[in-house]
Specification:
The complex is a heterodimer of chains A (about 625) and B (about 300). Chain A has about 625 residues and is an alpha+beta fold. Helix content of chain A is about 25%, strand content about 15%. In chain A, strand 1 and strand 2 form a beta hairpin. In chain B, strands 1-2 form a two-stranded antiparallel sheet. The chains are: A alpha+beta (about 625), B mainly alpha (about 300).
Chain lengths: ~625, ~300
């Protein structure tokens, strides 16, 4: 009835030292207390942790003394039976007790061994690694690979997959990739302009082929109608541009080397530059060709131009130079002071706008009828067209007839008027008037009241009246001649000649034409100038004494455009003084894809009340200040 | 490494072996009279002026000749900067010594932010191009932090290691800890279950354990030693004083351990700051090179 307790300690060399002790007792204790037979110097063990009793059959009964359990063969328990013949392993804290029989097979042997270090710090560790971040962070190598592969996958492989998936849709006007996210949009360098907004997720609408720069065909797939050529002869276009030199030549060479041909739509219509409108074309772009173009293209009829302020040819307004079959013939003439244009009328602006003559007096007599009280005003005759850019033709009935009345008869309160614009009707109406009417009947021929006694007076009157009635229709010729001749209604305004037909009694009215657009190659918008007084530009209007005076201003001189408009970068000629300069690049008046309308203006600037914006190279866009 | 002490001008003749030589050390920041710093600053200024004053068609953007030039220069610069990782494993003296190389790496690395940002034309969006730019800033930013760490922390590190008994090495720190643990373990044997458990927890806790957060902040709110001291103190207060103040002794030993742990943790914190930036700097560099490749391919792909 005894136990053998073998305590095993390790030498520094790793050699084992076994201390053996016999306990001739039926029950021994296990614990941290030094009084225990199985003494375990282990803070995880209770002072008296368990009792081991030897039962009659030779089996060991292990019982925990407190609630704290112990381990048996790897499992936690508070009560265990162990047959030493079979063996078993008890665990108390960091110690293990192997149960076995001794060599004789008679005594239970408890072999005690410390398996865990006294403390965590006592355990073996790699000093270098312990002081590093190893184990706390993923290694640099693995995260480098991880990050790099993730980026390549998400931003290269997946976009390429997107491209390949929808490649067959390219160059088809109506084909669109389905809505939603497409990975190649992560390649977009910036949002598209407003008009191309719908294409933001549809890269392949323009980028149709891999590694091929955007082609004109991609643009023309949709822009079938609005992409006019600047000039149809591309060779002339290139010739006027001249061969690139210096830096430009280097750029050209590099671009060619990288498969980026010049002269494509996208050279000017750059995209991915923000969600606003496409930026306006820069002045430099026009000047590249038009500056000194005569030198490169000697047969051109177009004068050189580079900057409005300093290098722009004189305007060439289209003037009426005669009439052919009722239609005016126009000729573009370089503007100069005193230029004349015959529109067929005798109207003079000076006379009509005078503040002192009879016309002004007439205006004063009819308050409320005219725009101003003192004299006629421009707006009394000139009405802007619906767009406000130009003016409607002056209409005789609307604008002249208030004074230049064509009435010739009054019936009741109604005035009968001659027909304007139809001389043959005038002649016919006058003849009809004289044929169907008679002179007013003298009062003393009717009734009996208050008459001179006797018939003499009455007979005389009756004879006079009868003669008047007899010759009355013949008065038509006189009236017609009077209307068409000097002092007559027609002759007041129109040039009348004697080359007419019988229908017009031999009179002819010189044809009249009103010029509705003088500047055909540039764009002028009256609406943008609405805050200026008309005579600021049309300076001759109040004094012009000749009907043929051209009142359109030129580029320079009094009222000329350069009075306010300076070049795109603010440049102006030294000889001109400008009080409130307005920077004016080419695009303010001219359009590359020319048509009869206004030049193209970025959408952002279209609805600005104060006019166009001017885009300048390397400077922000800003609205032009007006005064 | 990054000592910023200016070279001392002493009349004495230098004897290669004296300690004086240590103070003559010239760090990579001041190498060659800050040649690379001056070069980079001059280049940055020149490129900025070029960006402002060179007339370019359209907006300033990657797609102008200046843009492509800046982009090419930037990409090559980034690749060269990455080469430091290879270069530093081969130490050679001379003009292209590792120190010279590091100096150039630092200052050209700062320059690359200017090059990259001018290349962007300040057009940023949610795309691979801005991603590459952002990663570049992250790499350079972590690098700047690394320089700050190398310039300041080694001093704090040595200050922490020194006390009245002299310096203590990392190995010695562990040894001292082990010794204290053994002493505590032995002294704590007579303790009752409750107190023994407290002490045991202190011994069982891994002094190098804790999360990354614990490591970089140096704050260990779950420190078992600290808890044990507090608990033992309250136990001791509630118990009758005996002649043999075992709890008092153990508490004192635990307090010594806590002081040592404090120093160890400060050391670990400083070392983690010295190392942590590289865990961003290096992997993000490779992410940057990947993003850069995607950026370049995408530009030519959708030309």
């Amino acid at each position: 009835m005894s136990f053998v307790v073998r305590q095993i300690a390790l030498k520094a060399s790793g050699e084992e030292i076994v201390r053996s002790a016999d306990y001739a007792m039926a029950e021994i204790t296990v614990g941290r207390n030094a009084a225990c037979a199985v003494h375990l110097p282990d803070l995880a063990v209770n002072p008296v942790h368990a009792r081991i009793a030897l039962s009659a059959g030779g089996a060991l009964s292990v019982t925990a003394t407190t609630d704290q359990p112990f381990g048996l063969n790897g499992r936690s328990t508070r009560q265990a039976e162990i047959d030493p013949a079979i063996g078993g392993e008890l665990a108390f804290g960091g110690h293990r007790i192997a149960v076995s029989l001794d060599e004789d097979g008679t005594r239970a042997v408890l072999t005690v061994r410390r398996v865990e270090a006294v403390s965590d710090s006592a355990e073996e560790r790699d000093v270098g690694a312990a002081y590093s971040l190893k184990g706390l962070l993923p290694g640099k190598r693995i995260s480098a690979w991880g990050f790099a592969l993730f980026v390549l996958f998400a931003f290269l492989a997946v976009p390429l997959y997107s491209f390949a998936t929808y490649q067959p849709l390219a160059m088809d006007k109506d084909a669109r990739r389905p809505d939603g996210f497409h990975a190649d949009s992560t390649w977009s360098s910036g949002p598209l302009s407003i008009s191309h907004k719908a294409l933001n997720e549809d890269c392949q609408a323009c980028h149709t082929q891999a590694f091929v720069a955007v082609t004109d065909n991609a643009c023309l797939t949709c822009h079938t109608k609005d992409a006019h050529d600047h000039i149809s002869d591309k060779a002339r276009l290139l010739q006027s541009r001249g061969a690139p030199e210096g830096m430009a030549a280097v750029q050209r060479a590099v671009a060619s080397a990288f498969n980026r041909p010049a002269g494509r739509c996208v050279d000017c219509h750059t995209e991915h530059e923000g969600a606003g409108a496409m930026p306006a074309t820069q002045q430099q772009f026009c000047a590249d060709c038009h500056d000194g173009m005569k030198g490169r293209l000697p047969d051109t009829k177009i004068a050189d131009a580079a900057d409005f302020g300093t290098a722009h040819p004189q305007f060439r307004p289209a003037l009426i130079r005669g009439m052919e079959r009722g239609k005016p013939l126009f000729q573009r003439v370089a503007w100069r002071a005193g230029l004349q244009e015959n529109n067929g009328l005798k109207f003079t602006h000076g006379q009509h706008m005078s503040k002192t003559n009879g016309i002004a007096q007439m205006v004063r007599r009819m308050p409320g009828q005219f725009a101003a009280k003192e004299a006629l005003n421009c707006a009394d005759c000139h009405q802007a067209d619906s767009a406000g850019a130009r003016f409607q033709p002056v209409d005789m009935e609307q604008s002249c007839q208030a004074c230049h009345s064509l009435s010739f008869d009054q019936i009741g309160g109604t005035f009968r008027t001659l027909r304007h614009g139809e001389p043959e009707q005038v002649v016919a109406d006058l003849r009809a008037f004289y044929r169907s009417t008679a002179p007013a009947r003298p009062a003393n021929l009717s009734g009996m009241a208050r008459r001179v006694p006797g018939d003499a007076a009455q007979q005389s009157t009756a004879a006079d009246y009868a003669r008047a009635v007899r010759f009355y229709p013949g008065g038509a010729d006189q009236a017609i001649a009077q209307v068409f001749s000097k002092g007559g209604m027609c002759n007041d305004c129109h040039v009348v000649t004697r080359g007419g037909t019988a229908q017009t009694a031999g009179f002819a009215i010189a044809p009249v034409a009103q010029n509705d657009r003088y500047f055909r190659k540039g764009w002028f918008d009256h609406k943008a100038h609405v805050q200026s007084d008309c005579v600021e530009c049309h300076t001759g209007a109040t004094t012009s004494a000749r009907a043929t005076d051209l009142l359109i201003p030129g580029i320079e001189g009094k009222g000329g455009c350069r009075t306010c408009h300076v070049g795109g970068d603010g440049a102006k000629l030294a000889s001109i003084s400008v009080k409130d300069p307005v920077d004016s690049s080419c695009a303010m008046c001219h359009s590359y894809h020319m048509d009869a309308g206004a030049p193209w203006v970025p959408k952002n600037d279209r609805n600005k009340s104060d006019g166009q914006s001017v885009a300048m190279a390397n400077r922000p866009h800003f609205p032009v200040k007006r005064h | 490494m990054a000592s910023v002490a200016p070279p001392e001008k002493t009349g004495r003749k230098r004897t290669g072996t004296s300690r004086q030589r240590q103070s003559m050390h010239e760090g990579f920041l001041t190498h060659r009279n800050m040649f690379w710093a001056k070069l980079s600053a001059a280049l940055a200024l020149a490129l900025t002026l070029l960006y402002i004053f060179v007339p370019l068609p359209g907006t300033h953007f990657g797609a102008s000749w200046l843009g492509y030039t800046l982009g090419t220069v930037g990409a090559l610069l980034i690749l060269w900067l990455t080469m430091l990782g290879m270069r530093k494993r081969a130490i050679t003296p001379g003009r292209w010594s590792l120190k010279a190389w590091t100096s150039a790496h630092v200052y050209l690395g700062l320059l690359v932010t200017v090059v990259g940002t001018l290349h962007s034309g300040f057009e940023f969006a949610w795309n691979v191009h801005t991603l590459a730019w952002a990663l570049m800033l992250l790499v350079v930013g972590s690098g700047i932090f690394g320089i700050y760490a190398y310039a300041t922390l080694p001093r704090a590190l040595s200050a922490n290691r020194y006390d009245e008994e002299g310096a203590i090495t990392e190995k010695q720190m562990i040894e001292a800890l082990r010794s204290l643990d053994r002493q505590i373990h032995d002294a704590a044997q007579p303790l009752d279950v409750q107190a023994a458990t407290l002490v045991g927890q202190s011994l069982e806790q891994d002094p190098f354990g804790g999360t990354l957060w614990n490591r970089v902040t140096g704050a260990y709110p779950d420190c078992a030693t600290h808890t044990a001291i507090a608990e033992l103190r309250s136990l001791r207060a509630s118990r009758q004083r005996s002649k043999d103040d075992l709890l008092g002794r153990i508490e004192a030993q635990l307090a010594r351990k806590e002081a040592l742990l404090e120093r160890l943790r400060q050391h670990l914190k400083l070392k983690s700051w010295l190392q942590a930036w590289l865990y961003i700097h290096v992997p993000v560099t490779f992410a940057l090179i990947a993003a850069l490749s995607a950026h370049i391919v995408s530009v030519f792909f959708y030309w």
